[in-house]
Amino acid sequence: MQDIRIERTTQPRQKPDMATVRFGRSFSDHMFLMNYDSKNGWHDARIVPYGPIPMEMASMVFHYAQEIFEGLKAYRTAAGKIQLFRPEENIRRMAQSADRMGMPAVDEDMFLEALKTLIRVDESWVPEMKETSLYIRPFMIATDVALGVHASDSYLFCIITCPVGSYYPEGINPVKILIESEDVRAVRGGTGYAKCGGNYGASIRAGVKATRQGFSQVLWLDGVERKYIEEVGAMNIMFKIEGKIHTPALNGSVLPGVTRKSSIELLRAWGYEVVERQISVEEILEAARDGKLEEVWGTGTAAVITPVGSMTYKDETLVIGGGKIGEVTRRLYDGLTGIQWGTVEDLFHWTVPVSK
Amino acid sequence: MQDIRIERTTQPRQKPDMATVRFGRSFSDHMFLMNYDSKNGWHDARIVPYGPIPMEMASMVFHYAQEIFEGLKAYRTAAGKIQLFRPEENIRRMAQSADRMGMPAVDEDMFLEALKTLIRVDESWVPEMKETSLYIRPFMIATDVALGVHASDSYLFCIITCPVGSYYPEGINPVKILIESEDVRAVRGGTGYAKCGGNYGASIRAGVKATRQGFSQVLWLDGVERKYIEEVGAMNIMFKIEGKIHTPALNGSVLPGVTRKSSIELLRAWGYEVVERQISVEEILEAARDGKLEEVWGTGTAAVITPVGSMTYKDETLVIGGGKIGEVTRRLYDGLTGIQWGTVEDLFHWTVPVSK
């Protein structure tokens, strides 16, 4: 494995006030960089001060979106230790995204070492306040300076981090979701299961429209029949119907979320039945109308668990659980965040210590 | 309309040998830049030396692919004049792409003025040799330094140019096309009609696979039923069957090509019947088997008209027109490039002079 060269900053950045910090706006002192080209493979692993990099405007990433990313967090426990939550899941998923986008994978051990080393260098950036964490954004971009659509010969792998508070500054209150009936995010055979920029770029217009109408996020339907539920803007989604948990199966156009997977494992360990399957929007609307839809929540790294208070499809709005947070939603949030911050025993061995 | 500030280079770049230049690898001396933010709108229109721009690694374009582009060319006529081909079509399409991606449009007059001014400044970069031109790449990227999926508040609009020879260095020989049956490029409701990076990023893996197997490009089928023909990697596609021309209709997942539109108008002016409709791959295979498929060609800015010599679908390869360039294909190529280089009278008023 390559050595990681470390160049420490001489001009430390101002740390944000963790009570008011906005998600993804304040970056830590350092970033990890590593270059790839087809001749030399991955090389020049280094940690350098966070700052701008000169980019030629003909760089492929600006034109053909050969770009993938991941998102995970480092947590500080009450004892002051720093830990990651299932980083190997993100590492593996990034390799899958790379495959879909014709990009090279990063060696798994190297990737984990890069994460740990960067967080050790920026240890003081892992916040202590309750509900805060260090958000970690590994990503890879195509850097060939060339027009003409082709797989780039060269890539930059980068990890940046930022201390974040709770994703929803107002606390975990139930959100209003708009079921999108026009725009489509992904389709089987497309890039839906990959964490590539294009999926998110395609989602922005619908997100803007929903926000203007007072919704928090959009729920996507499948691209083929536009009747099966796929995922929410930045989350997977789960439904509790008559005591049982239902969630869309990983069909190729749904992102295989790490929080989704962890929630399923936790719920099953608690004795809940969890069914991964094709779920039509009509079925969910009917369950809601009949009073059988007890809870709805989203799962994602940024917000962990997000209760859904209402869902709007075309002209119909269905309030879920009286607009309050459900019992399983709350238990999942407490269970997962408890493991992440080290207040609940990690029976699954999901956390990985960063401190040496 | 804003004034365009011009800062000329003091270190002119080396011009490439036009006999051997590779497509999209050698950039002209200058580039056009203009910034947008929601408070000031578009501002600071300027032409500066081509060169790298410092970019923060948290810039939105690297993560969520909020990026769109266009491609057009400037041609030098035998009389030494420089002209553009239907630039207003590209300007209008870029506004449509911007709308789909939640990005601001550039004022049409400003856009055209930027194109003309930049090409005048880099006039000496418009090559003279036969079959050469100046390829022009306008594009827009999201520049907010912020993670969290949202519409960026700030954007950079940029135009870079590069002198290019013929897209196929070996001349316009018929290419071999692979009909892709696994990966999907776009779906209705998605971004297929927009010229956004994500569409191209999604296409790269299939392109690599096809190239390895000796094919030139991939032909995409629709994302819903995977049986209707949409477009080829960098081109729209047309079929001549028993004297009539057929091409996939603009259904929302097909790029509305400027060369496609111009070809249809030219063909109709010549008395050909052109039908825009849904075309199944089975129908084309059958026409080929029955000897009714007379010609197949692609239309696109980079290569203008590309004859298709064979199409391979799963295990079947169908040779078209004995693998030779068809009569209409040749006539279209000569007709369009004749107008572009000013050797054929521009009856449609498609060309726009750049010289004052």
From TrEMBL, chains A, B:
Reaction(s) catalysed by this chain, per the record, are:
L-leucine + 2-oxoglutarate = 4-methyl-2-oxopentanoate + L-glutamate; L-valine + 2-oxoglutarate = 3-methyl-2-oxobutanoate + L-glutamate; L-isoleucine + 2-oxoglutarate = (S)-3-methyl-2-oxopentanoate + L-glutamate
Q: Which InterPro entries match?
A: Aminotrans_IV, Aminotransferase-like, B_amino_transII, BCAT-like_C, BCAT-like_N, BCAT_family
Family (UniProt): Belongs to the class-IV pyridoxal-phosphate-dependent aminotransferase family.
Q: Which GO terms describe its biological process?
A: amino acid biosynthetic process; branched-chain amino acid biosynthetic process
Keyword Amino-acid biosynthesis assigned: yes
- Cite the EC number: 2.6.1.42
Residue positions, PTM N6-(pyridoxal phosphate)lysine? 195
Q: Which domain of life is it from?
A: Bacteria
Q: Report the coiled-coil segments.
A: none
Species assigned in the record: Proteiniclasticum sediminis
Cofactor(s) recorded for this entry are: pyridoxal 5'-phosphate
Under which pathway is this protein filed? Amino-acid biosynthesis; L-valine biosynthesis; L-valine from pyruvate: step 4/4; Amino-acid biosynthesis; L-leucine biosynthesis; L-leucine from 3-methyl-2-oxobutanoate: step 4/4; Amino-acid biosynthesis; L-isoleucine biosynthesis; L-isoleucine from 2-oxobutanoate: step 4/4
Official protein name in the record: branched-chain-amino-acid transaminase
An MF annotation (GO) of this entry: branched-chain-amino-acid transaminase activity
Q: Does the record's keyword annotation contain Amino-acid biosynthesis?
A: yes
Record key words, sorted: Amino-acid biosynthesis, Aminotransferase, Branched-chain amino acid biosynthesis, Pyridoxal phosphate, Transferase
